Amino acid sequence: MSEVFTKTMARNIFYGGTTFFFLLLLALTFDTMSVLPERDHRENITDQVILGKKVWEDNNCIGCHTLLGEGAYFAPELGNVYTRFGNSTDAIKGFIMSRPKDGIPGRRSMPQFNLSDEELSAVAEFLKWTSEVNTANWPPNIQG
Known about the structure:
By secondary structure, the chain is mainly α. It folds into two domains: 1-39; 42-144, Cytochrome Bc1 Complex, Chain D, domain 2, CATH 1.10.760.10. Helix content is 51%, strand content 3%. Strands 1-2 form a two-stranded antiparallel sheet. β1 and β2 (70-71) form a beta hairpin.
């Protein structure tokens, strides 16, 4: 190939690459938009789930825990805690209520937030709702 790389050749490569990647972007956008409605479960949001989200935010749970991979990595992932606790909101409530008042001295542990029964139920329902999100098998293992 004894030809010299010309401006015309460079321009054609640029326009061809730009067109290819723009079409790829459109195809991936179309694919994502067609799959998302199947993964949506907003119709399952109840007033209790909304209250649970508010309690979650008011107590800054995301400051220690991750939820579907987002948040701090100090404490366990809670996106699948409902599944880990045997599909039981009572087990989640029991775990939260069993926390010692000041945590366990000398080790990291969840403090006691002294939540009301309504707030406990709401947090458990929120975590149940979160576990039902289609995450395409994330996290890859049950322990998060």
